[in-house]
Specification:
The protein is α/β, with parallel strands linked by helices. Helix content is about 45%, strand content about 15%. A seven-stranded mixed β-sheet has the order 9-8-7-6-10-11-12, with helices on both faces. Strands 1-2-4-3-5 form a five-stranded mixed β-sheet. The longest helix is centred in the C-terminal third of the chain and has 26 residues. The radius of gyration is 21 Å and the shape is globular. The mean pLDDT is about 95. The chain binds glutamic acid. The site of glutamic acid has 12 residues, from strand 3 and helix 12.
Length: about 425
């Protein structure tokens, strides 16, 4: 086995470094106090749990799970849980920090957290996944709670996983016996168990709203434009559908199985039927397979990275032909990739805004649970658009005022809110 040199950094450590660089630049720009800066550079809590799970064949395997709680001055910790073999501490720390900026920017009364379990759900049966999720929830114990830390789905996890978490939490001592009133310990649940209408599509729908806002600002018609979407999971699929409703044609899609293209358009419904059976976009009959590097260089108006982080790198950025990047994923553009894109005049709609639809509708779900209420779908969609457009307006104003990038402006809005609360509350003891 090759030995690790002390200079080697893992993917997660690099990602956290990226997040810190972005934070430092924005903190400098707005003159954030040194006290607040040093608090926000480190997550408040980093929880790592190891737990055994019996697999279907009787083998006992140890799993490792993480929950990083970055900051809670604006409200309970909030953020997704990802199931992926790549999950490691540095990655979760970066993602938790990004959640703090996202919730603050969005104006929802939450802080930021993220978690995950290092395993590949594609290699496990439903029964095994259920046991993994339940054991993880049990191991977390009172580290989560309806007014303390509220997980949600992320890459690799889904509504069913949230229902198992809720059920485990409700049936354990951590729920404090107040079962009916603690369903909001997780969001992104199925509708039947207390989820919100519109939560499933919220991130993709939200990204489409953000894009529409941008096109309105630049006085350009969205109808008749084209998009290339990387990732056809919850975000990519719903984004393709929402864009389609706005008159945008998706001509290229890529995922972990490959990349496909059809200049006349790819029907999201037909592709969804294909991926549900085949497990990925490869082999879709109504498109040609293309090289993944050609995918990033697609001749489209809008490029939507909606998969994982660090995809639009300094190598790929010079080849991008789209004029707008809509960041459906968290951290899909590296800092050096972003510098190249900005130099080339490409507009970037940053992740903390573009994919905030998920956590905003999570807040609506949490509120509905708290009030035992049920909102209609159009109410959810209208409120979602209002939250996102307010956030986008705030960013555009700050961008003009500070003459900075859109990501820096987004951070400025988020950090100013948090900084003000720190200043007013002070530090105790
Ligand atoms: N995982 C999603 C995100 O990265 C949603 C988080 C949530 O709803 O709490 O924003």
């Amino acid at each position: 086995m090759p030995t690790r040199r002390s200079t080697d950094t893992t993917h997660g450590e690099q990602l956290f470094e990226t997040a810190l660089q972005q934070f430092d630049a924005a903190a400098e720009l707005i003159g954030l106090s040194d006290r607040t800066r040093s608090i926000l550079r480190s997550p408040k809590n980093e929880i790592i749990v190891s737990f055994p799970v019996e697999l279907d064949d009787g083998e006992l395997r140890m799993f490792r799970g993480y929950r990083v709680q970055h900051n809670d001055v604006l409200g309970p910790f909030k953020g997704g849980l990802r199931f992926s073999p790549e999950v490691e501490l540095g990655e979760v720390k970066a993602l938790a920090m990004w959640m703090t900026w996202k919730t603050s920017l969005s104006g929802v009364p939450f802080g930021g957290a993220k978690g995950g379990i290092a395993f590949n759900p594609r290699e496990h049966s439903q029964g095994e996944i259920e046991r993994i999720v339940r054991r993880f929830t049990h191991a977390l114990g009172s580290n989560i709670g309806p007014e303390h830390d509220i997980p949600a789905p992320d890459v690799g996890s889904n509504a069913q996983a949230m229902v198992w978490m809720m059920d485990t939490y409700l049936n354990s001592a951590s729920s404090g016996g107040d079962r009916q009133n603690t369903r909001r310990v997780v969001t992104g649940k199925t509708i039947e168990t207390g989820g919100s209408l519109g939560r499933d599509k919220a991130t993709g729908q939200g990204a489409a709203f953000v894009l529409a806002h941008h096109f309105e600002q630049i006085n350009r018609d969205l109808r008749g434009t084209t998009a290339a979407i990387q990732g056809f999971g919850n975000v990519g699929e719903h984004c393709a559908r929402a864009l389609g409703r706005m008159g945008v044609t998706t001509t290229a899609v890529a995922d972990h199985t490959g990349a496909i293209m059809n200049g006349h358009g790819i029907d999201p419904e037909a592709l969804w039927r294909h991926t549900s059976e085949a497990g990925g976009v490869a082999g879709f009959a109504d498109a040609d397979e293309i090289d993944v590097e050609d995918f990033f260089a697609s001749d489209v108006d809008i490029l939507v990275p909606a998969a994982i982080e660090n995809q639009i790198t300094a190598d790929r950025a010079p080849n991008v032909r789209a004029s707008v990047i809509l960041e459906g994923a968290n951290g899909p553009t590296s800092n050096d990739g972003e510098a190249i894109l900005i130099e080339r005049g490409v507009e970037i709609l940053p992740d903390v805004l573009a994919n905030a639809g998920g956590v905003i509708v999570s807040y609506f779900e949490w509120l509905q649970n708290k009030m035992s209420a049920k909102w209609r779908l159009n109410q959810v969609d209208d409120e979602l658009r209002r939250y996102l457009w307010d956030a986008a307006d705030n960013i555009e104003n700050e961008k003009k005022r500070l003459a900075c990038s859109r990501r820096e402006a987004a951070y400025a809005v988020a950090l100013n809110r948090i900084g003000t609360v720190f200043d007013q509350r002070g530090i105790w003891p």
